[in-house]
User: Fold these one by one.
Assistant:
Number 1:
Amino acid sequence: MTDFVIAVPERCVRILDTLNDAGFEAYVVGGCVRDSLLGRIPSDWDITTSARPEEVTALFRRTVPTGIKHGTVTVLSGKESYEVTTYRIDGSYGDGRHPDSVMFTGSLREDLMRRDFTVNAMAYSPRDGLVDFFDGTGDMQKHVLRAVGDPEERFREDALRIMRAVRFSAQLDYSIEEKTLGALSGLVPTLRRISAERIRTELSKLLLSGHPEKLFLLDETGILDVIMPELALCLKTPQHNPHHCFNVGEHIIRSVCAVRADQVLRLTMLFHDLGKPACRTTDEDGIDHFHGHAQVSADLALSIMKRLKYDNASIDDVVLLVKNHDLKIEDDARSVRRAVNRVGERMFPLLLEVKRADLAAQSDYQREEKARHLDRIEELFRKVLEEKDCVSLKTLAVGGRELMAWGEKPGREMGRVLQAMLDDVLETPGHNERTYLEQAYRAGRYRPEDQPAEEDH
């Protein structure tokens, strides 16, 4: 026990006091203690106690039996809820994730001993101060992540801890202690037993951390071969091209680091060049090219995100950005309007962020010129918005109702006519006026146009 003081929320203190006054031990535990010591605001406060679940339930007016089998009762206080879990010793882990059984114990030390890492195995109460049996504070001072007790045993109990180790390493910017790293590396194949949803959660937290470069650690430990072999292949794929100075995988990870911490943006950068290994060709001068890689990467992004059970909205946004990340946009308002029409007004600013992150992870070749070009595209986009140029069918001056009034029958041909009108307006914004469009329609002047091309980077 040490002299650290943690500002525990008042409602949480009342729960601790109620348990203490009834003769039981009670502490806040785990991540909330760690984060408090780091000067961070905990997202939730978990409580551990010597009281049995039925004793906790008897002490509080509003409770929910959220995990009685494992000793957890949720205590409701105002609009807040706190998980209160009885000290326990876990039995064997038959599925490599959850204990087959738990045995309640009166020992706080035994309860903390079952936890994953020393920085997560500390407890605190205003009455007793900090309880740190396994020197979590020492490891925090050394910026080291170390398993509690035998690391191999900890990872065999719960294979997800393998991913959690890398994720915490990224969130805390800690190195992983040598024996802990060795144990997790040796047990990487057991990750195959973990559900896609849990893998996704840990991967997303790593990506959104302050140190997404820890993705390299996933490769060094062999974890990528299990959870995303597509990226592992990229880290073995060179790209001899003036635009690049890193292999495909290193470029990808550096681009992830270069974009802001938004799930859609970081997933886009993670997936944007995954198709390059399949598309790589080398010309007679030894220069690598990756024609068509954007579409292949988009297909892989769709497959991987479905495999990891991402939500449909995120999938749609990421796949759209990956497919268009190399979209060629000329330095003129017409090209910008067409690009905005292609990806949507909401997504176009994100596409520009993707292009900037992609550039940040390339070589110095034409870097300043490319950056100026993106600046100009962004300036033109702002002008398009300010002048309220039409960039979609939604803002076209006419719609299906007007076309039917002019004698057009509903159906596929009407859709083609509207698209042709939009193509005209994208070319010349001043044409977005009902009288002009009607005259042009009656003159039979509308025909579809080709789509924009891609760059080859």
Number 2:
Amino acid sequence: MKIALIGYGKMGHMIEQIALERGHEIVCKIDVDNQEDFDSPAFASADVAIEFTNPTAAYANYLKAFSHHVKVVSGSTGWMKDHKEDVERLVREGHQTLFWASNFSIGVAIFSAVNKYLAQIMNQFPQYDVAMEETHHVHKLDAPSGTAITLAEDIVSRLDRKTAWKKGTCVWDDGHVDGSADHKPEELLINSVRHDEVSGIHTVSYDSEADCITISHSAHSRKGFALGAVLAAEFTLTHEGLLTTTDLFKF
């Protein structure tokens, strides 16, 4: 398979390594300093583009890839609020293909399935209040993480006593704290921690007067995310439309 990389930072380098190990070819690498390569024959020859950039660039990157009818696998978050309907229309009417996920880790996909099932069970036990915490490295500026938001939305859709998630506090290594833990009973609070070089920890806790039930996923490195992105690209090669990890992993 011919792969184009959009975003060539730490994730891009790791995706390249795993893709080559799995026998794929990297035909184009696009970063901030060579945006003109979107219009190159090399990019147009790609079967799939794997995009890991930032919320402000992601949507424009999709449009550039779609203009050459290159399928896209993307892990960029934050774009859906303003552009979800546009992307859905482009996929539907323009016959484009986008595989999007807030997290490509196989472990997180398993964790997500457990999270959904646990929320269904806990809907029967209103004495338990649910809260979330996510921890990432200090270079990650957005909070809560896209993965935490996805997990929270999965909980809210299954718990009658929760109507929405709410951003809580964000604690930094230097001691300062952003945000507030104030929230309404019907809101699911997501607190954040930005610590050292942590790849990602997501924890969901159901607490009652009697006891506490906690599930957690901790990433040891970015390798799991990179492998998942390449697996998604392999899946996207033979599928079309708006895809996500529930299409790839049948739990």
Number 3:
Amino acid sequence: MTTSRRTFMASAAIGSSVPMTAASASRILGANDRIRLGLIGCGGMGRGDLRDMLAAGKTDAVALCDVDDSQVDRTQKSVVSRFDQQAELRTRDFRRVLDRDDIDAVIVATPDHWHALPTVEACKAGKDVYVEKPLAITVWEGRQMVDAARNHGRVVQMGTQQRSGSQYVQAKEYVDSGKLGRVRLVRCWTYLDWKGQTPHVPDGPAPDGVDYDMWLGPAPELPYNRNRFHFNFRWYWAYSGGLMTDWGAHMIDIANWYMGIKAPTSAMSVGGKFAYPDDAMETPDTQQVLYEFPEFSMVWEHALGVGRGPGDREHGVMLHGEKGILIVDRQGWEVIPETDRIDKPAREYKAGGVPHQAYRPDREDMHLDHVKNFLECMRTRERPRSDVELSHDSMIGCHLGNAAVRTGRRVYWDVDNERVIDDPEAEAIMYKRPYRKPWRLEV
């Protein structure tokens, strides 16, 4: 009796790290099958994600969804001109995308307050998901996304492409080698000199071709304001968490990965609108967070309007070990040897260090490699590099930092049970928020 490749893959997936369900087994992808994609959220990141998935090959753009018709039109033109493809469905309602049985996966690149609902509903509809960072705007949402992926046997990858960058992988191998010695302090940061102040503008009618009620979705009902629409939504608490979640999702994820941890046990934070005190943003333009872990401490810091952070880098992660300091960012990595003067007449170095190892964008593309990993995992049913649960864990530190700065006090976290300890105000900020009717999140 012979066994076909599809039969083999269906049976082998039962014991894989992404269990198969009736919905997920409805179409087992072979190596030569084309993957049919739907894009939910046609802004800059969505177009970039779709572009690289189509560039990876054996993929088709089937559906484009955005509440702004102009975004859909722009994406359709790009798909036609670059890949000679034309999406069959264009819609403002993501549910029409999920209703299609011929779509294998969706990209969720909406504003942040819209990440959880489409991801969970896509899992329930038997589709894999590539969701942009930050994973969710509360811990509860993130946990529902993890549960939906596991309950329905879905591959869910967050768009933290650093996990697919060779320099980050090489630096991780160095950390695992033990050559840094015991790490006592981790620093993560981002300083963005290109982001200035956001001027106040009056509320007004939504532009033609925009379904603003759908854009609001589960968020509180507020009048349309272009400052809260498209890119700038991330500076408002109802829709996101500022730079803490926008870039913390990237850098804290690397720290979690390197240190092998899930979440801090507490956080203290200071910060505010120190650079642009009178502009329209709600979230801090300057912030520092001190995190507690059992065997080390971690610092997060961010600033807008300036670009020279620690080590003269715009962004990065720094591990302070006994024998050296490892620094990694999107440009490369290096290790600076630590010094030793105990009972010695002159300072000596404890290790040899590693000179700067540059990332070579002319030879590799970490974002393209990240989406390739997602597409490959759709075929193998293995968990991707930025699996939804790893991503959920990394977001907890971001939410905790924002709860600390907004309450003005130290916030304690129960790592095992994923709950704030004895602080109802902090819990209301970071754990779970009410959804505007009729929207509900149900796994």
Number 4:
Amino acid sequence: MKIGFIMSHPVFAPTNGVVSQAYTWKKGLEELGNEVVLVNMWDKNDWSSFDFLHFFGFSVYMADFIKVLYHVNPNIALSPILDPDYSITNLKIRSYWGNRKLNLMNPFYALRQIKPFIKWVFVRSEYELEYMTKGFGFEREKCPIVPLSYGIDLPNKTIDKELFCLHISLLCDERKNVKRLIEASKKYKFKLILGGKLRNEQEKRMLESWMKGNEYVEYHGFLSLDEMKDLYSRARVFALPSIVEGVGIVALEAAVYGCDIVVTEKGGPHEYYKDMALNVNPYSVDDIGMTVTRYMNGFTHQPELQQFTIKNYSLVAIAQRILDVYVSEYPKV
């Protein structure tokens, strides 16, 4: 099968989750013998030569393009990668606010307009499914749940866990809630190692102010893949207490390396662990601190969580689920 992957908007952050999802799925599909093309919009593409065209993210530009593309190749899939920090009602209002004749457009309105032209909408969780069906009005049957896979190599040896909590993200992104995690480490006296990108001097000063006077926290900078694997191997706990999160692939990778997982109750991440992770209220420093400390004091879901994650979220397992959707017969287009 020949599949075209298309980005719907520009990419700025070096750790962009949309890009990560697309590259991981590309690798998995290719391991099953398929051809996956990262479509270059500067090229003269033969759109009819693709068995499927799969868009990642959504934008006004994407909507206009899909309306034309549909008449050349109707096999169009979308991964909206929606990480909302607002209500379904809010989303529904946004998706109705617009008028093509008056050129009043926004990405949510544009996505609603192209519902008839999209064959499949790939969602990563029940949480995202609810937004797509109740917010945009997509039929449930058109929205298969296909979780993300881990894209990291499996550990080749077992290392004794050390008593520290790990967190990796765009650290000063408000959504990641790192300030409260740092406050929890100080209040509950657990070692916290942070890794990730700081995008400018302002963020550097911000992180320094959060860490000031806290002897329990260390910042290790932007991490290479080998550095990430080393920390995953040694960390007792990985914490992802985001204000809202779509999946949190770093937490999934940490589970593969034997970390216990503390994850936000907001959004879709907690669906991935089948009651083998502890959920927290991201607005509560005490909830975050007590939950991390519980794992630090000996409670664990490992190795069952590691075994479950490796089995259910491998590249090949998820790639096969993607292919199964592509070739299935419903809905008729």
